[in-house]
Amino acid sequence: MRHKHSGRRLGRTGAHRTAMFRNMVTSLFEHERIVTTHEKAKELRPIAEKMITLAKRGDMHARRQALSYIRSKDVVHKLFSSIKDQFADRNGGYTRILQTGVRRGDAASMAIIELVGYQEQVAAVKEAKDN
To answer: What is the pTM of this model?
Structure first.
């Protein structure tokens, strides 16, 4: 029985799972949108939202906690400068999961996980290119 055992194993050891989610969080904040399986996206969401909450706190201890999990100093700087300002007036719900279908090889359900303001940024970039 799995009483009080939260989280999905995803067919990996604990160390592999931790490393995978550290890489995925780093990529999510670097690119602001990643494509992965639906199950991985659902497990990634609370980790990413916790990192954004740390960034909103903004003190040195929060920055060090984020640096201990996120693998790139440049991504942490981006998180604590631009992404923090994007969600300053929002209390949670920083990420969005969109289901995209199934993967052709093994029929795994695929999803896109992105930061909530991502679509508006893409539209602004397209308008700037047109002008």
So the answer is: 0.88
